[in-house]
C-alpha cells in the first residue's frame, strides 16, 4: 500500500517478539520499545533535507552535512512517551510537542484532552509517535490537528498496527507516511490488535490491573 512502510529486519523481528511475549517484564518491554523506535526513526528520516558543509578533523578538512528540516516529535500520550528519547538521540535538535488522546472504551473513538502545539510557524516535518495503530482513530485525529496547524509533511511511527488501522489512516490522509514494524490482520471485539502485544502503555508503565 502506498504510504505504508512495513520495515523488515531481523532486529525488528527479535524486539517485536519481546514485546509480544506476555511474560516480558516492564523494564525489558521499555527497552525493546526504545530499540524499535530507533530503528523506525532511522527508516523514516532517510529523506530529511540537508545541506553540505565542511568540518576540520584533527587531520584535515572533511565533507559533511547539516539538517535543514525543522523537525517536531509528537508523542501520543501516554504510550508514545517511550519512543521520544530514542528518537531525540538520533535528532537532538528536534522539538517535542505533545498531544493527549485517549480511546473512549465504549465508542473506541479518540478523545483529545491535551494539545501543546505552539502558535506560529509549524515544523517542516512532524513525526507522530504512537506505539499501537489499532483503529487508526488516534493517528487520524493527530494528523488532522497537525495539518490544521500547517505542517507540510507528517509521518506516523508505530510499533504495531492492524490492517484496519493503516487502511483508515491511508484513506483519511493519503499524503501521510506510516512506518510500522508489523501489520497484524485484525482487531478483536474490544478493538485490540490481534495477535498484537496487549496495551503498550500499561505494559510500559506497569499499570496492568490483574
From TrEMBL:
Q: Which GO terms describe its cellular component?
A: cytoplasm
Which key words tag this protein in UniProt? Allosteric enzyme, Glycosyltransferase, GTP-binding, Nucleotide-binding, Transferase
Pathway-wise, it operates in:
Pyrimidine metabolism; UMP biosynthesis via salvage pathway; UMP from uracil: step 1/1
Phosphoribosyltransferase domain residues: 9-207
What this protein catalyses is: UMP + diphosphate = 5-phospho-alpha-D-ribose 1-diphosphate + uracil
| Highest taxon above the source species | Bacteria
What this protein needs as a cofactor is: Mg(2+)
Please give a single GO biological process term from the UniProt record: UMP salvage
GO molecular function annotations of the record? GTP binding; uracil phosphoribosyltransferase activity
Its family remark reads: Belongs to the UPRTase family.
Q: What does this protein do?
A: Catalyzes the conversion of uracil and 5-phospho-alpha-D-ribose 1-diphosphate (PRPP) to UMP and diphosphate.
| Protein name, per record | Uracil phosphoribosyltransferase
Q: Which organism is it from?
A: Posidoniimonas polymericola
What gene, per UniProt, encodes this protein?
Answer: upp
Amino acid at each position: 500500500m502506498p504510504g505504508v512502510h512495513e520495515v523488515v529486519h531481523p532486529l525488528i523481528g527479535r524486539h517485536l517478539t519481546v514485546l509480544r511475549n506476555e511474560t516480558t517484564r516492564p523494564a525489558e518491554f521499555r527497552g525493546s520499545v526504545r530499540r524499535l523506535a530507533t530503528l523506525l526513526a532511522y527508516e523514516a528520516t532517510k529523506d530529511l533535507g540537508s545541506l553540505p558543509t565542511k568540518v576540520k578533523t584533527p587531520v584535515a578538512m572533511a565533507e559533511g552535512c547539516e539538517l535543514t528540516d525543522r523537525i517536531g516529535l509528537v508523542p501520543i500520550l501516554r504510550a508514545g512517551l517511550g519512543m521520544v528519547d530514542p528518537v531525540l538521540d538520533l535528532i537532538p535538535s528536534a522539538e517535542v510537542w505533545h498531544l493527549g488522546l485517549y480511546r473512549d472504551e465504549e465508542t473506541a473513538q479518540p478523545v483529545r484532552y491535551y494539545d501543546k502545539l505552539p502558535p506560529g510557524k509549524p515544523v517542516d516535518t512532524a513525526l507522530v509517535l504512537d506505539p499501537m495503530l489499532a483503529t487508526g482513530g488516534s493517528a487520524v485525529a493527530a494528523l488532522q490537528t497537525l495539518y490544521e496547524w500547517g505542517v507540510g509533511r507528517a509521518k506516523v511511527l508505530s510499533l504495531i498496527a492492524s490492517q484496519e488501522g493503516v487502511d483508515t489512516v491511508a484513506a483519511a490522509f493519503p499524503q501521510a507516511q506510516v512506518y510500522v514494524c508489523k501489520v497484524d490482520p485484525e482487531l478483536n471485539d474490544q478493538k485490540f490488535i490481534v495477535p498484537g502485544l496487549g496495551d503498550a502503555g500499561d505494559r510500559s508503565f506497569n499499570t496492568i490491573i490483574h
